[in-house]
Structures are given as structure tokens and as C-alpha cells.
Amino acid sequence: MIEDVIFHSDSEAETDRFARWCAAGVPAGLTFALTGDLGSGKTHFVRGFCAGLGVRPADVTSPTFVLMQLYRGTMYTVCHFDTYRLGDPDEFLALGAEEYLEDPNCVCVIEWADRVESLLPSDHVRLSIRATGPTQRQITMTPGGPQSHLLVESVRRAANG
């Protein structure tokens, strides 16, 4: 059984490094389910993750009001959802989420993923982000299936250097 990876970040730069480790090992078609309080750093993680996939960080913004953003990276298209304002999972499906979640050439990142838990693919990575100080974060990475297990192990190796 593969255990969670718990990463302690003392700065935004360290969170970026963690996000790039995730990007470096991500297989096509994997979904990231992000949870954490408002202001915990979910969008910051996505910015670093996308940078690791060849997307300009300045192009990555929170989709809180538009609900979804697509970013074309050098390896994959990243579909960035924010479900904070959705009333129920059916609204997520109305965005066309299922198409992206099933696309093998797309990596999905879902902020406030607990709101659409029932619709997540069984093999996904859960990232729980918790602020522990002004710039400090605890990020818990939990695998949900075979592909996500491989990614978690890849990140564990990178973190242990």
C-alpha cells in the first residue's frame, strides 16, 4: 500500500517546486482533486503545475467566475476547474466536465473537488492544501489508483532527493 506524501512548504517557491515535481511525472489523462480553505494556495499550486507543463504562469488565473480555463502546455492540455460556485454536481456536468475527465490527452485540475466528489474518476490524485503560516503550507498527496500511485511515488522520490 502506497502511503500519502506529506510535503511541508515554507515558501511560495517551495510550493512551486512541489507543483513542478507533480507536473514532471503526471501521466496523460490524470485528474487532480484539490481541496483546502479559501486562500490556502490551490490556484498557486495550479500555476506552478501548469508552468511545469510549459504554460506561462501569467496565463494561469483562478476560474472562480468563469468556472473553467483551458491551458495548452507543451505536453498536455490542462483543464482547470473551480467548483466553488456550483450548486450541485449536475452543474459540473453541464460545463462539459465529463468530456475533459475522459480525455486521455488532457490533465484535469479541480479546485474545491469535494463538491463534485461523486463524479471524480476512481484513479485521481487528491491534494489537500492547508495553510500553516503566512507562506507555509502542508500539502497532502493521496493516490486513488494505479496511475496516481506511480505519480505519488515519483513525487516522493523527488522530495527525498
Provide an overview of this structure.
- This protein is α/β, with parallel strands linked by helices and 161 residues long.
- The chain has one domain (5-159): 3-Layer(aba) Sandwich (Rossmann fold).
- Helices cover 31% and strands 26% of the residues.
- It has 5 helices and 7 strands.
- Helix 1 (12-25) packs across helix 2 and helix 1 (12-25) crosses helix 5 (146-159).
- The radius of gyration is 14 Å and the shape is globular.
- The two termini are 22 Å apart.
- 40% of the residues are buried.
Distance between the termini: 22 Å
Low-confidence stretches: none
CATH architecture: 3-Layer(aba) Sandwich
How large is the radius of gyration?
14 Å
Taking the sheet with the most strands, its summary is: 7 strands, mixed
Identify the quaternary structure here: single chain
Count of separate structural domains: 1
Give the strand line-up of the largest sheet: 1-7-6-2-5-4-3
What class, by secondary structure content?
alpha/beta
Task: Count up the helices.
Answer: 5
CATH class: Alpha Beta
